[in-house]
Amino acid sequence: MAPMIIQPSISVKTLSESPNLKSIPSNYVNSAIYPSDSPTSEPHDYSNSIPTVDFSQLISTDLHQRSEAINILNKACQNWGFFMVVNHGIPENLMKGVIDGTQGFFDLKEEEKKEFEGKHVLDPIRCGTSFNISKEKVFFWRDYLKVFVHPHFHSPSKPQGYSDIMWEYCEKSRQVAKGLLDGISEGLGLEECYLEKALDMNSGFQIFIANYYPRCPQPELALGIPPHSDHGLLTLIIQNQVGGLQVQHQGKWVHVNALPNSLLVNTGDHLEIFTNGKIKSNVHRVVVNNTSPRISVAVAHGPSLEAIVSPASPLVQSESNPPAYMPKKYKDYMEMQQSNQLHQKSILEQVKIHRK
């Protein structure tokens, strides 16, 4: 009997809810294409050593507390490119409301979700499945909703109330991102607002990405999302109580066990470009399971879409430390990443300057 092949015209959620689904279609089997990326081995247990930043100390008027928090933040950025944020001031019930609203969106009927499909990677509302089905031979066990929320706010009209809670959450997460970026600027020896001014963060691009990873009958063969780094500066992530995010650290995969009510934060490619490689963007992936669906909401914070991003001049000061990345408009970089297959740091490699 030939292996089952499903064209991704339906969501993975609908596929996963098919009666008697015992195996995944062959075009969702990622182990054949990316054997080194597939979650066949246990991740390394560094999970207890993932850095934690206390946001209340980072914005404290107590200079000693703030200095300590900036030190922890910058070590986390340079050593991990990933950290958890606690005491961030975003209410627990608001975070829960975002996750519940996201569940409500993915619970809509297929024809209702198709209203928000979008045609182009720069459409302000776009929902679909996998990552980029026009380029992929093998698909990922994931459905998504991507919404541009700043400098102009967009949102789907369903389910009722989702738009309001999305707006409130995005406003608050932007305040946290600003506090983190100010701390990173200071930790690099720059003025507190250097990064904010240089990249026109008042017009900064913010995108709300809701992910649904259904229960999978063969999780060892599938991937929710492959190893990749994010565009932009920082991505703030919340999730339901189901894990699956893994980050790369010292060449090993580390399973992220999130602290209750914490924000998970990835550094993005444009932070690597802006700091001339002093901070590296984090490579991460999502694995799936056969018991419970995972919901995550990632809010990515980037420069203004029109900003041309290149290494900051104070961080490029001598012949021994020349610019390592070519200048590129953020909008063009993001379009390039979203229009291609997602794999490691393949897009960042294209703007790297390779010297002999």
TrEMBL record:
Citing just one GO molecular function, the answer is: 2-oxoglutarate-dependent dioxygenase activity
Q: Which SUPFAM superfamilies match?
A: Clavaminate synthase-like
Question: Which InterPro entries does the entry link to?
Answer: DIOX_N, IPNS-like_FE2OG_OXY, IPNS-like_sf, Oxoglu/Fe-dep_dioxygenase_dom, Plant_2OG-oxidoreductases
Query: What's in the keyword line of the UniProt record?
Result: Iron, Metal-binding, Oxidoreductase, Vitamin C
Please tell me whether the keyword Oxidoreductase is annotated for this protein: yes
Q: Which domain of life is it from?
A: Eukaryota
* Domain Fe2OG dioxygenase intervals: 203-303
State any GO BP term from the record. response to molecule of fungal origin
Q: Which family does it belong to?
A: Belongs to the iron/ascorbate-dependent oxidoreductase family.
- UniProt protein name: Fe2OG dioxygenase domain-containing protein
Source organism? Capsicum baccatum
